[in-house]
Amino acid sequence: MKELILLKSGEIALKGLNRASFEDMLIKNAKYSLSDLGRFKFYKAQSALYCEPTEEGQDLDEVMVRLSRVFGFAGLSRALIVEKDFDAIRAAAPNYLRETLMAARTFKVQAKRSDKKFPFNSPHICRELGGDLLEHFPHLKVDVENPQVTVTVEVRDFAAYIHTDQQPGAGGIPVGSGGRAALLVSGGIDSPVAGYMMAKRGLKIIGVHFASPPYTSDRALLKVEKLCEITSDYLGRVRLHVVPFTRIQEEIKDKCPEDYFTLVMRRYMMKIATIIAQSEDCGALVTGESLGQVASQTVQALACTDESAGLPVLRPVIGMDKEEIIRIARHIDTFETSILPYEDCCTVFTPRHPRTKPKLADLLAVEQKLDEEALIREAVEGTVLKTLYRK
Questions:
Q1: Average pLDDT over residues 63-72
Q2: Residue 218: CB partners within 8 Å, gap ≥ 6?
């Protein structure tokens, strides 16, 4: 008995002449996600990709979990490989499906015959195999509307494949197919979700974190590193740039009006992130800002922040409320880490009455009190790069 993983690529099928390059990148990402689980053979035909183990005893349950997190796959099925012969299919199906069908009360059979040379059409396969399975499992009843188990037979280019219900994939398009972007990651709930959402649209994500010791602790930085490791299940390895930000925040506190603290801080973050992003060949910045969530996330404040960025700013959660963001954070397993109660630099020197409708001219006048060039140069030169992934 030999199994493989049958993968459906979904949106990539619509890429026309570029489809092959998307599929090649998808296979590359899939191979990387399985790199510590042994060697796998990938090949493609029609609208499906095939992942076949090359060694005995490889953990296909874990393979399913890993591949379900690779952006670009719409669905995946663990399937039995069978010779393209109906007698072989009817002989193999009862043993392969025994555990699943013994636990069910209703089922149906569906067939897909993309190899038109196969002598039986799809209704014939369904009818004959359904009858065989009823003889082997007499407790079952056929329910074509709402079955507990759907047995699928696919007769394709290379072989026939038997499997039960297809699992959903991560969707989207392959990471890296849309270029690169730098994510400002704070350690809260929103930024990991923002990175996940843009990676789903094909961006390779680079992390930029601003640390302000002793106002922020080592545990706060470890929390951010942990979030990068968790999201690497979807994003691949994350290059995290840790920027020393203490000096800048102290200068802002000493020389700027309190109600401008957060705005000036955010603009410095954008300027520094732009420099780092350009060094990483990124074409955009990504933030976890949600409109109206805090004082620095009003339309006026965001406009002032954008003016300081040298690249387009992508905000995938801008129109989402907190419950929607939390739902995704739970899905990608970052929520419990994000709510650990360690201070991040965004909560240092928080003004009592932040300005929510700033005017850019006033903000620029405030910033004249700072030696911007020296402060930014010092921060960029002191930045530490780490490469993080789930081990």
A1: 96
A2: none
